[in-house]
Amino acid sequence: MKAAVEMIAGPQANLEAHGLMPGELPDAIIANLRQTITADQDVVILADIVGGSMCNAAMALLDLPNVRLVGGMNLALVLQLVLASPTDPVPLSKAIKNAKKDVREVVLDLDADDDFF
Fold first, then answer.
1. Which of 3, 40, 72, 94 is deepest in the core (most CB within 10 A)?
2. Which keywords does UniProt give here (predicted)?
3. Topology adopted by domain 2-7+26-95
């Protein structure tokens, strides 16, 4: 996901990616993250699957008042958050609502009167 975001938006200093590799424990990754989060940061953790092992482990960070967790991320959501202006950030709830609109079946209507090209 990070590579896709940076291919579109360029390098992002405030974007990190942490993936679970075979043999690794989610709790170890979360423990390392806890050590890096400072009180002056607003942290949004985006997990791929609600109820997945990384999302469940990341819930342990929700005791920090500056950490928010979102499960079910997609590229549209990450791009909205990354490309938001620091002076006019997109509220997380609005970004989630917008990203949900991008999840739908795409159908080609061959009987339509409009030319596709």
1. 72
2. Transferase
3. Rossmann fold (3.40.50)
